[in-house]
Structure formats: C-alpha cells, structure tokens
Amino acid sequence: MSDSSIDVVDIGELPPLGVVPKKMHAEVVRPDRYGDPATAFAHEVVDTPTLGAGEVLVAVMAAGVNYNNVWAARGYPVDQVATRQRRGETEDFHIGGSDASGIVYAVGPGVDSVDIGDEVVVHPGVWDADDRWIAAGRDPMIAPSAKIWGYDTNYGSFGQFARAQAHQILPKAPHLSWAEAAAPTLVGTTAYRMLHGWAGNTIAPDDLVLVWGGSGGLGTQASQLVRAAGGRAIAVVSDDDRGAFAMKYGAIGYINRREFDHWGIPPLVDDAAGQKAWTASARAFGKRIWEIAGSRQDPAIVFEHPGGSTIPTSVFVCQPGGMVVVCAGTTGFDAMVDLRYHWTRQKRLQGSHGTNDEQAIAYNQMVVDGVIDPCVGRVLPMADIARSHAQMGRGEEVFGNTVHLVGASTPDDGRRS
C-alpha cells in the first residue's frame, strides 16, 4: 500500500517492506524529447504507479538494457506514448526497461502466486488474460494483446518501482547479485524461444548454429543455450577480442565479419558482375563456417537480429530445411531474400518475439540451476541510462549485458553464498 507519510526515497534506498512511497525517481522519455537517447531520457520524479487486478509492484534493485528502449527513445518505429494514449492510458511519458531484478512491494487484487518480500526477476511477455486467442489454448505471445513489458507498456524497470503482471514474476537466482539477476531475462528468454519454440526446427544435439552478435547480450545467451542442448554455436563478431569473449560463453569458434564486405542488399540478379562478387564473398563466409565446424556442415539454425545487413547471407548459408530465426532488425528493417536459395532448398525464415510463460520458466530455471551465466559486461548507475542507450544506438558494442543499479548500492548486492 502507499504511505502518505513517505513522499519519495532516494535512489539506492528502500522504504520499509510493503510501504510504497507516493512518488518515485525514474528515467523518463517524453515525446517532445524523442530522438537521440542521450537527450530523450531525463531524470524526473513521478507518481508511483497504482495496481490493477492481477498486477504486482516491484521495487527495482537493478535494470538491464536492451535495444527496444533505443527505439522507444527515438519514438520510432512506434511512438509508444501515442499508442498507449489511443488505448485510453493517460500518461504522457514512457518509463521503459524490460529487465528487472527486485523485491515485491505490493500485489493487486486476485494475486496469490507471489508475496510481498519475494526476491524476483520479471520476464517481458505481457498479454490480456481475457484474450480469446489465449482462451483457445494458443501461444500467448502471438495473441493480439501480446506486448513487451517496459517497451509496449509503461512503468518498466527504469523507475524505482515497476508494475508487471503476476505471471511475469519469477524467482531470482539466490547465487546472483541484483545486477547479475537483472541482466539476462529478456535476451535469455528471447533466445530460448528462438531456439526451442519453433517445432520442426528446434535445437538438437550436434546441430550447428550461427549466432550473429556473438559477444553481445543476446548472442552470449544463445551460445550458452546451444551448448546446453548439445549443439555447436559459431559466433559472428566484429573483432578478435569479441570472438574470444564469445568463446568464453559457449561458442566453438568465431568469424570476424570485418573480413568480409558483402553486407546489405545484394546486387540485383541482372547485375551479373555484382552478383558474382557478392556470391564469392558469401561463399567465402560459408567456407569459414565449414573450417570452424571441421566439416562441410551448414547451420541448422541461423540466430538473427541484425536484420537488413545480414539476412541475405543468413538465408544463403542456412542448410536445406533449416531455419533463419529473427527477433530484431538493429541494422535495418528492410531485408532482401533471394528466393532461389529460400524456396528450392526449403528453408524457413521465422520471426520470433518475446516469450511465453512456459519458455520463461524453463529459461529461468536454467539460470537458477547455474547452467546459464548472465554475462554482465558492465554495471552503471541509474543516472547513466541515457548514455548507455545512446551508445547502443550508435552501435558501440559492449561485451555481454549492460545493467544499471536502481535500489542496489553496489554490483555485488543481493548475492547469497
């Protein structure tokens, strides 16, 4: 419940358990600041969100960073504030953040699955309980009401208190610090769905998987999941240091993409010389995969998220009957597929988004069991949220995941022996 005697607490502090201040500190995006994340985010003190039926309020200890709030800060490709106002929400701001670790401070009507005081993480899949698609037993993340928490919804982890649906709440791994626990959930559950969620092309022992961005937050989770399933991951990175980091987290080898120049939309088919040059470079890239694999084995799954610059190559090198699975388009949403390599070799180009409860629970159990490392690359204060998103938006790659401390005071807070 809220306590009228407590107006707001300082960042890095907590009120008594179960006491919710009237206001909270947050890093806020407003439409008149859309653009560069460096200036789109600003520190504000806002009202602490109230809860509806089935909702939970979490005191955020640490918050992870994902590319989705680079998009939110730009107001493109979706103006999230305007979209929510069209649904009837009144707030004229966005508090993002799709990864959180924290402590349950309040529960709404009908919540009996979590208790005040629980130490938790939050998975990013959100949907309406009364959605007819879900009532029919279909995958909730494909439902018309499906959203990503802290991107499509307000009051994510970039405030002192975050509002989530009760089914999103999962137990925090006791051996992890708050910062470590906040790092991997969105990227990890996304990767789990991409590799385990598409019947007919799920990861199997001995499968070869090509992982783009192998040293980043998403890629390091993917390689670990591939290894845990008995497969072999080959990372694509931008330099040798990143390659070594990717191998530390499960990749059997890596390809430095800067050694190739065929990225982006290939020349049209009637440009014979251009097609020949592009194909030669793409074949050389494929040969590098064979060299690492130790045989002429093509990837059964290509783990995609750059999009525009890499999709043509991904479809080209994927094995016949294999799958290119894509969850983003960080280098561009316009991607070209040469259908000759797609239909005749019967490859699958599969979109994948978010996670359902079953997948999130399975992934989180692997974290709790110590099978998956969160791959924390750096831990920053809450005040640096604008800076980290600006760097991500400029393509300044970091190793692993970036995390911001909110309620936690140090990177080691929250770890139990």
From TrEMBL:
PROSITE patterns found in the cross-reference section: QOR_ZETA_CRYSTAL
- CC terms in the record's Gene Ontology section: cytoplasm
Q: Does the keyword Cytoplasm apply?
A: yes
Query: In Gene Ontology terms, what is one molecular function of this protein?
Result: RNA binding
What is the first-listed, main subcellular location in coarse terms? cytoplasm
Record flagged with keyword RNA-binding: yes
- The name this protein carries in UniProt is Crotonyl-CoA reductase
